[in-house]
User: Which sequence fits this backbone?
């Protein structure tokens, strides 16, 4: 697998609905090799989640405006 600088970087992201999440990195499904983003909610029970990379990085149209589903707030170095 090659390193892709366009992949979500570890850091804090804001979901378009407002909540914040910590992205840990990109993993791959063991059977299909589909890329998924691994992230943790920074609220409630701080659940650990995965979402297909294509869905995580997509741009949505809300009230006629384009907005990213997740926007980077602070990258971890």
Assistant:
């Amino acid at each position: 697998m090659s390193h892709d600088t366009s992949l979500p970087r570890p850091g804090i992201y804001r979901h378009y609905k407002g909540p914040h999440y910590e992205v840990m990195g990109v993993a791959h499904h063991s059977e299909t090799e589909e890329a998924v983003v691994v992230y943790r909610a920074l609220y409630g029970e701080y659940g650990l989640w995965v979402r297909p990379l294509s869905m995580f990085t997509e741009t949505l149209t809300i009230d006629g405006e384009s907005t990213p589903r997740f926007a980077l707030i602070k990258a971890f170095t």
